[in-house]
Amino acid sequence: MLSQEYSIKIAHLYPKLLNIYGDFGNILALKKRLEDRNINCQIINFDIDDNSCEKIYDCNIFFMGGGQDFQQHEVANDLKKYKEFFSEKANEGNVFLGICGGYQLMGEYYKPHNMDKQEGLGLLDVYTVASSKRFIGNVSVKIKNELYNGTLVGFENHSGLTYFTSQKTKAIGDVIVGNGNNGEDKLEGAYKNNVFGTYLHGSFLPKNPQFADYLILQALVTKYKEKIILKVLDDEFENLTHESLFNKSY
Ligand code: GLN
Fold first, then answer.
1. Which of 139, 140, 211, 248 has the fewest Cβ atoms surrounding its Cβ within 10 A?
2. Rounded to whole angstroms, how far apart are CA atoms 120 and 105?
3. The domain over range 7-245 is classified in CATH as 3.40.50.880
4. Mean of the pLDDT values across residues 107-134?
5. How far is the CA of 185 from the centre of ligand 1 (A)?
């Protein structure tokens, strides 16, 4: 079992602007699952008025939630200052998780309806363009085997359609119920190394404990550069929630 000397720092990016549909629950889930394993967890909020990435320099997980187009515009402008920093952190193997708007801004760009194109961090080889319709509803996903054999559940609410620009970035899974990235290719989410983006709100991680642990493990292995086995937690309630939602469109 891991002892107290193990610790993980989580950077919550732009919580004042990108935090809709309960996305803060993802931070809470990561913190709880780390502390239930006796691993110290520190959450550092990073917002536009911080004006420097110094406070998140040694973070191991970077989280960005969803938001409306206007809030994304403000964040996109601020992110330009840190593009090289976040690219360096991603290349080191640190974990990134973007939900919906946060996902879109981890890609190359997001083009809203009536606003200028928003430049993204370019951590994922995807781009997003707003459509005339809005995808709203439950989503069920079968994870692609390259990651692990499992399923995901969540709730989508987006007008953005996300498309891949390179095979270096892969889809997280196949859509069983719902729309996912664009409602056309029946793919959901994207990942490249340890950078992950998904349209699943909900909150996402509390309902998908196996995925939460996958992220935690990647962050620990990147930080400590050793083989790590996570203590198995009692996820009876989380799994019942997951199963009650899987393959349900209502
Ligand atoms: N504004 C973006 C869209 O509509 C993202 C929405 C969200 O984060 N839920 O696609």
1. 248
2. 4
3. yes
4. 97
5. 19
